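Minutes, project check-in
Item: structure for the 174-residue chain
Input as provided by the requester:
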Amino acid sequence: AFADCVSLEEFIIPQTIKIIEEGTFRRCKRLNILEFPQNLEEIRDRAFEGCESIESVILSQKFKKLGSAAFKNCKNLSMFVIPGVLSIVKNLYEIARDQNGNSEVEFTFSKHCFEGCNSFVHAHFYKIQSLILEESAFYHCISIKTMNLNSSGTGEIQSSVFGHCSSLAEIVLP
């Protein structure tokens, strides 16, 4: 719909939208202000791939699925939040430590979903039923320092999830 709109800087996604389709905003290099609807449940493959100016994404608790390479090469993305599932922030004090995870949630971070997100620093997963990190989910996130995988149920970490994460100094496993 808006792929390769290199001049697009701001977009308010209507509240009626539940799914952002594959490649919708792909390579909108100047897109930096996004408002996501409270009813959004899914972002499909490559929806925001190459949107280099996006700095933060805050989704609702209703969010359920993140497609492959959804935010690949979003180089300035430094904050990504799904309440009760994940907080990725620049500063540890920004993580809501008192937030409880949803023990009924099963969440999969699809292949390459955050590959090349060079501004991620700290990632904290909340206690959820099941956490799956598919192949290369955080590949080449060169600034990420800490990863807290706090899943209380079943989980899976596939190949190269943290490949070329050259600053990664600490991983906390359940």
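Outcome recorded: The chain has no helices and 14 strands.
No further action items on this chain.
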